[in-house]
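Reply to dn_fold:

You asked what the input looked like. This is it:
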Amino acid sequence: MNKKSVHIEYAEFTSLNELAEMDVTLINKALHIAKLSYSPYSKFPVGAALLLDNGEIFAGNNQENIAYPSGTCAERTVLNYVHANFPDHKIKAIAITALKSASSEPVTPCGFCRQVMVEMEQTQGEKIKVLLHKIDGSTYVFESALSLLPLAFADAYLKPGT
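and this is what came back:
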């Protein structure tokens, strides 16, 4: 048996004043869009805002449905919209925040969203910076979506001979 480990590295910022201006802009956009979330069942509004390589910012929020689990997380709402409408542009960064959380730490994306972020990162051939923000708390900054999902499922698994 070989024992192995996975190391995840990220930066923690305790104040928005420590972050780059564009990171703060993304977080503020995520906070704003979270207020427009359709989350009558969970009462857990989440917002996500992303930056494209052309400087445009897009945002999305969670959209629930009584026919659970047919709702969509904030991350996938904005990622899928951007991928469908701007397939030739690269995503540089995404900021994610929740308006209500009992946790003292920033909310992290679910497994579905992590997989989507990793695949988009791999497809575009460039890392996507991920900012996880807690209102009145810390912001965690990951240099790559893959940091959130080590050992992610990849398209290489679907190819013959791999």
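The longest helix spans residues 21-34.
Hope that clears it up.
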